[in-house]
Specification:
By secondary structure, the protein is an alpha+beta fold. Helices cover about 45% and strands about 15% of the residues. The chain has a domain of about 130 residues. The strands form three sheets. It has a four-stranded antiparallel beta sheet with strand order 3-2-9-6, covered by helices on one side. A three-stranded antiparallel beta sheet has the order 5-8-7, with helices on one face.
């Protein structure tokens, strides 16, 4: 059996909700300064070849086979529960699957995977430079003459493995996941709007951090259904009081403005809207510059400056 090479950052089970009668979704893609639409199978969009590949590891496709694929299978069942309106009672496993999927959408896109991999490589290079300073003094007679030779013998894929582990830990976060799980979950059917909900490669709407009492998470889960998790139960009631067309316009604005490359719809009726708004909001920061510098200093063996 061939290893999976097509790694979906926006899973097929999720994008399938935007499929039209022909079984295809409308992929609106920004590339080379142009924004164009074309119809694609949900399987043939929202992916990058070898996105989660751990180069040099014993099993280079471990993340996709043993983490992302099981995660998406579990989340697909949770999504059907939401769409059917049977989301009032959640088992622990179902709730965990859905919260982990939500967290995955923050990290699993190509840009953030690259940020994580590049940062771990930088950490390894800084640590290597620090070790090189006294490697000759500490080298045992049986060790290679150079640090490069020693590292090649130990684990040349250490940076790749470390980046893959960081990605999985960020997604299956035991501290953040329960916070989402304990929020008030609701679904909102918006089938009276003039427009349908769009989704994108940045589909999560979360204007405040989870520590803020105003915090909520909104995620379009179909062209007419919105999932919401909020600390305050009154937030869901406030949405119900809004005109659906206006609410969908606001939600679509958020989802499209924060998109980087892809927006998906059932058809191209909102193509001009996407052209005006795609990528106009700054991307969410997953590692701040201060955090980068602090960890790089630690890799060099420098004490933290407080």
């Amino acid at each position: 059996m061939n290893d999976p090479r097509r790694h979906h950052h926006n899973p097929e089970f999720y994008l399938r909700q935007w499929a039209g009668p022909d079984g295809l979704v409308c992929e609106i893609k920004k590339a080379h300064g142009k924004v164009e639409a074309r119809r694609r199978s949900p399987k043939a969009t929202g992916f990058q070849r070898d996105l989660y590949r751990t180069v040099g590891a014993a099993d280079e496709q471990h993340v996709e086979k043993n983490f992302m694929s099981p995660l998406d299978n579990d989340a697909a069942r949770a999504l059907q529960k939401i769409l059917s309106g049977d989301g009032t009672e959640w088992s622990s496993a179902e709730g965990t699957a859905w919260t982990t999927f939500i967290l995955s959408l923050f990290y699993r896109n190509p840009e953030n995977v690259t940020i994580i991999k590049d940062h771990i490589r930088d950490l390894r290079e800084q640590a290597k430079a620090a070790l090189e300073a006294n490697y000759a003094e500490r080298r045992l007679p049986t060790y290679p003459e150079t640090l490069d030779g020693y590292m090649a013998l130990t684990n040349p894929a250490a940076a790749e493995i470390g980046a893959s582990n960081i990605l999985m830990k960020a997604i299956a976060n035991p501290r953040v996941g329960p916070k989402i799980l304990h929020m008030h979950w609701t679904r909102h059917v918006l089938n009276n709007s003039k427009f349908q909900l769009l989704t994108s490669d940045r589909p999560i709407i979360m204007p405040w951090g989870l520590g803020d009492p105003r915090a909520y998470i909104a995620l379009p889960v179909s062209p007419t259904v919105l999932f919401v998790a909020a600390h305050d139960p009154a937030f869901a009631r406030s949405l119900a009081g809004l005109k659906q067309t206006e609410l969908v316009w606001v939600l679509n604005s958020e989802v499209v403005c924060q998109a980087r490359k892809f927006v998906w719809a059932t058809d191209d009726s909102q193509l001009e809207f996407v052209r005006r708004h795609i990528g106009t909001a700054p991307d969410r920061t997953i590692i701040t510059e201060a955090q980068k510098q602090e960890s790089l200093a630690a890799a060099r063996g420098e004490s933290s400056r407080m």
